[in-house]
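Bench log, entry 3. Co-assembly request; chain sequences pasted below exactly as received.
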Amino acid sequence: MYNNKFDREMAASGFGSQAYSNAVQFRGGGASAAARLGAIAVLVRSAGGSQNRLPHTGALRYAEDAPKIPAATITFEDGELIDYLAKMGTVKIKIVLTPQTFPDAPSHNVIADLKGSEKPDEVVIVSGHLDSWDLGTGALDDATGIGVSMQVLYLMKELGIKPKRTIRFVAYMNEENGLVGGRKYAEEEDQNISKHFAAIESDLGASHPLGFYFAGKPEALPYFLPISRILRSQGAGLVQLQPGGVAADIGPLTQKGVPSFAPWFDTRTYFNYHHTPADTLDKVNPKELAENGALMAVLAYGLANLEQPLPR
Amino acid sequence: MYNNKFDREMAASGFGSQAYSNAVQFRGGGASAAARLGAIAVLVRSAGGSQNRLPHTGALRYAEDAPKIPAATITFEDGELIDYLAKMGTVKIKIVLTPQTFPDAPSHNVIADLKGSEKPDEVVIVSGHLDSWDLGTGALDDATGIGVSMQVLYLMKELGIKPKRTIRFVAYMNEENGLVGGRKYAEEEDQNISKHFAAIESDLGASHPLGFYFAGKPEALPYFLPISRILRSQGAGLVQLQPGGVAADIGPLTQKGVPSFAPWFDTRTYFNYHHTPADTLDKVNPKELAENGALMAVLAYGLANLEQPLPR
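Structure output for the full assembly:
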């Protein structure tokens, strides 16, 4: 799925759709690129796939070497209209923006351990992020990731299963505005990285999973065959190596060598809703959510009980 | 498609989707029904099929016998959320509405005749309505209806076809707020109704047409077989009797006995966009728009050249 360096890098930032990755760079870097050409403001056409007059928003990064000009997102439809009008002559647009940046305030990652029965000091992380972008309610981004991660611990307790290694639930704070929780976790656990056996994160909604992505040494792939064999029965038996990384919050752990995993979703509908007002609970299919809970649980349990250490 | 009196009545008001018709009564009459039960305001769940956080708006009719309480539409998603919260306890909602009703102002139907070669005093109307509901741009409701109606006259001129009866293009003004243009036209032409051979209106978007609806004497149906035979080649060969009426603006003519016609659309997507901010030009499929132009032209020409008068 990711065949070149650019795609791998974009994938490493947590985005699983190549088309989206190719489009979202205009949102992230468009303002500075336009400013370098003399623009006094920039309106960015929505990068998502929806055609429902929804502004699709998200992070923008101002470059150091360009003026910081006002920037806003507009819907696909309004972008088309402006493009049409511009072909007929000058288009004048009045932009009223009222953004504010508040000082940082204390917040916290939320962590819960289900202690391992044999190697309690070795950790398999199951995770998502607590915060959401502001237009929608964050049902897909990333309440479902939090939900399926909590589900792992719940299932172990319900079924009376005692994994050999510790399974650690982490709800990272502040992914959207700078990956702060994920970075802080990796920093605080820096002396303890070798005890992080694996990290899993779900942060691309909760549609039908095809299997999982893996960032780590290719030599580790054969170790996952027994896990994939179990997941195959629910149509989630594929494993895809994605060396650049698999999800945003666990990215800092991946870079420190922790074998990293993420569900491989069918993302055809995800970018219709993500970072729009329409990211609401009704978009979550309960059956597919349950499929993801099962995938996360099987994957986490399989890793927690692996006989050998993973090559890293 | 319309098997009972209720559905026929709703169809007569110009709505071609049974599910929509059944739902939209809550928007039209919900405020008064709630007021009779003591409500002080009403929020109506969107009647359209979209799940993209779009408020679906439209006409509301206050009954004479109930207090006129504030009323607003909310999205499907917000309706679901309020329903969920209400099951847990009292939900308090602050509603800020700023509607204004301005005095009536002069406006005009736009009419153009392509004179008939043999019976110029007999008229076949091709029509749509000029105005649109305010959230979207009215591409589907009803710019496409205007477009395909104008296309009829354009095609006749381009192809050098001279219909025997006059083909009259009518762009009705103010359909959305009380059907004023349609009513006025029928009123002004009251002495001339017998010269109105037929009336066609397109007012349900421009998706693939399956054929056409007909409101009039069932004995007239065999007269349309040659027309349907031509339309069959583009998959639009069906004719459906719909005695209550086929479209809003020509409804007053239908009631005076003018044989009335409307394209029979595949409306699966229409109510996702209609009366929402997403009713924009990109929703119009050029190929399907052309199919409707062809249907309107074939139907109008066939009627304008019919040998016999239609039973009425």
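The first helix of chain B runs from residue 5 to 12. Chain B touches chain A through 19 residues (CB under 8 Å).
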